[in-house]
Amino acid sequence: MSEVMDLPGDDDDYTSGVVKKFMFVNRKAPHGSIYALEVLEMVLISAAFDQDVHLAFVDDGIYQIVKNQDPARVGMKNFSKTFRALDGYDIEKLYVEREGLEERGLTEDDLIVDVEVISQAEMAELMNGMDVVLSA
Amino acid sequence: MLHTVNKSPFERNAVASCLAHAVDGAAILFIEDAVYAATKGTSVAAKVEEAVGKCKVFVLGPDLAARGMSEDNVIAGITVVDYEGFVDLAVEHSAVQAWL
Q1: Which one of A74, A76, A84, A101 would you mutate to disrupt binding with B, by most B Cβ within 10 Å of its Cβ?
Q2: Which backbone phi and psi does A23 adopt, to 5 degrees?
Q3: CATH code, residues B2-99
Q4: What pLDDT, on the 0 to 100 scale, is given for residue A17?
Q5: Which of residues 41-100 of B touch A (CB under 8 A)?
Q6: pLDDT in tens, B44-85
Q7: B14-21 and B45-54 helices cross at what angle (nearest 10)?
């Protein structure tokens, strides 16, 4: 009896190259914990799978993309520069919540990368339309 | 008493609780993610400015620099200190209370 096992990777969704809408939601400040760096690692890995990747920066996550970070002063890696390399991986959909910027006394000019500044309501709609959301 | 705080004021209430418990004349030092509390124009700046009037408030310079926060953007009346300054503050005060 020749039976084809139903292995992950065998289904049509996988082999037909379906592109899903992924969102990585960044909510943590960059250097006080390892979350921000870990999410960025995931984002870079996701680029290898040709998915429709979106990055959202809300709450303290906005601080991850502030200009002029010098974390070598506290023995941490300066991964903020990596955000500028994302367009080389075709990751260009970066969104920042306007309310979060204002709460922190920041403007778009304070950010190291080009982003789309959207309202909290727009962010909510965007999140709602995703197939996969990974948040930290 | 020297109070140290290391949490972002937007993520935890450590800064708010510290400010509410620090008596007049106490020293408060913002370190790590709490340095965001020392920056101008935030939604918590008014509370911090109020504390500057009655306490001695400090912020750790290397932690500001790490996060891209300019010393020019620190709330007036807050003193930026380096690690030696941190040690001096710890020595000068009889006790240290850490708000984690």
Answers
A1: A74
A2: -130, 130
A3: 3.40.1260.10
A4: 80
A5: 41-43, 45, 62-63, 65-70
A6: 999 999 999 999 999 999 999 999 999 999 999 999 999 999
A7: 30
- For the record, the structure tokens of B10 come out as 């937007």
Q: How many residues does chain B have?
A: 100
**Mutation for testing the A interface, residue in B4, B5, B10, B64 having most A CBs under 10 Å:** B10
Distance of alpha carbon A89 from alpha carbon A7, whole angstroms: 30
What CATH number should be reported for the domain whose range is A20-135?
Answer: 3.40.1260.10
DSSP 3-state percent helix, strand, coil across chain B (nearest 5): 45, 20, 35
DSSP code of residue A121: H
Q: Which ipTM value was assigned to this complex? A: 0.92
The predicted pLDDT at position A3 comes to: 57
